[in-house]
Amino acid sequence: MAEPLSPIERRVYHYLLDFLAENTYQPSIREIGKRFRIKSTKTVSDILQALAEKGYIERDPSRSRGVRLLGFAAAPLTQPVPVYSKIAATEPVLLPEHRQSFLTMDRRFVPSDDVYALRIKDDSMAGRGIFDGDFVLVNPSARARDGEIVAARLGEDATVKTLTHRGAAIVLEPANATDREIVVGPHDNFAVLGVICGVFRSYFDAETEQREPAEPDAAA
Question: Tens of pLDDT along 86-120?
Fold first, then answer.
């Protein structure tokens, strides 16, 4: 097992991963220093050396970009899935300004190219294994059938519920005894956005870590 990284070592390591994925080459020592406001190239070199000694990278000190990420390769058969922070009340419901980020998914879990993700903000579907903070994958190409979990729009609000028809009425059923079902009226601003095709849960908040600023280096 690799030795744990310090906070600054972890941020530099993640930066190396992201930079290589975006540019197909590694950043130079000066570029790393600029990114983390570290003035001393020796300090950057020491961080890289610590990553090498802990088994995360290999270094060629004779080259400015002489870093190889151990175990890293551009992953084939993957697909970026956009994550939306909100949906619009009219068509199109998915707007570029509401796109928050992307999830890189194995294509085996992505049934169509237009799949996107929403983040759950309550526990109304806890009885079916969907909890507050989970990411759900929405397949807008699938036809929703009774008993399936769907993402639906009510005005500007998105909700995830079980779809049920009762005669001519559409009912959105929660899976939590503390929540009420939603009966959709003929004049409601309502649309089914798609069928839920996946649920993903993280047990730590990576976004908080990514937002954490690096400490400026005091060395000249």
Answer: 998 888 899 889 999 888 888 889 998 889 999 99
Distance (Å, whole) CA 25 – CA 5: 23
Same domain, 137 and 63: no
**Catalytic site residue 86?**
no
Asked if residue 118 and residue 174 are part of one domain, the reply reads yes
* Burial call 149-167: b when 16+ CB within 10 Å, e when fewer: bbbbbeeeebbbbbbeeee
Co-location of 129 and 67 in the same domain: no
Q: In the predicted model, what is the mean pLDDT of the chain?
A: 87
User: Which residue in the list 54, 85, 161, 202 is annotated as catalytic?
Assistant: 161
In a domain, 209, yes or no: no
Of the candidates 112, 124, 141, 202, the residue annotated as catalytic is 124
Is 34 in the active site?
no
Range with lowest mean pLDDT among 36-45, 74-83, 104-113, 201-210: 201-210
